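User: I'm putting together notes for a lab meeting next week and I want to include a structural view of one of the chains we've been expressing. I don't have a solved structure, so I'd like a prediction I can at least talk through. The sequence is below, exactly as it appears in our construct file.
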Amino acid sequence: MKRKIHVKAVKKAIDTMFSDRNPSNLILKNENKVVWITQGIGTIDTRSETELSSLFETMFEAYQHKHPDNTKELFIEVELERAKEYQKYFPEYKTNSEHKTYYFELQRWIDFLNKVAKPTGEPQQMSSENNIKKPDFQNNFDNVSPKDIYEYFKIKLVGKGYLSEQELNDYLKAAFELKTIPKTLFKLKNTPTKQNIYTVFYSFYKDIAQKKHSSAEDYAKLLGAYFEGYNTETIRTNWAKDYKTKR
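Assistant: Thanks for the context. Below is the predicted structure for the 247-residue chain, given as structure tokens.
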């Protein structure tokens, strides 16, 4: 289901992320798009905490322009997920010098993000959007904990700007607790392709809920029945193709 990016594209993304750039090079094309002009004089030194700190602030500034209602904590979660996903493309980091370079650049970024993240014992900061708190909902749909459901979809949907936090809260209440389809369906915004969203919900079904193929339709309805522009049968067919190739 999840289409693996070619390793060349991953390397290019990492090179771009660690390229020399600063706030003065941030150009806003419009409210939803940010373009970077890099200096073209090499990459930052990921061994330097000062340079990583500057990179962090610059990237967060761009993230806030695109997602003004999202918190710094959510930005960190999204970046951690991306860096860990990229690391999987360099499995030979112990023996291959190029793999080693990319893998440990990412690891130093991961270590830095974990360092600046809030300790888990601190109270969760409320979103700037109407002071929204973490939702309190019961999961009457399956046996996944509400905490795991919330954290997964918060990163995948709110963190990417597809839903606001309030919209996510309303969706989780409707789909997992009430199991009632609203008269007005939820709407995902600024999604690159439908395939990206298919992947989000397929990964929840396969990796988080860890359900079997026979229950796929119920999970496909979490997207197809509740969101505008999505069809459960189309989603189900899309998932079935991936199931057959991996069986």
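A couple of points you could mention at the meeting. Residues 22-41, 120-132, 243-247 have pLDDT under 50 and may be disordered. Residues 97-116 form the longest helix (20 residues).

User: Perfect, that's what I needed.
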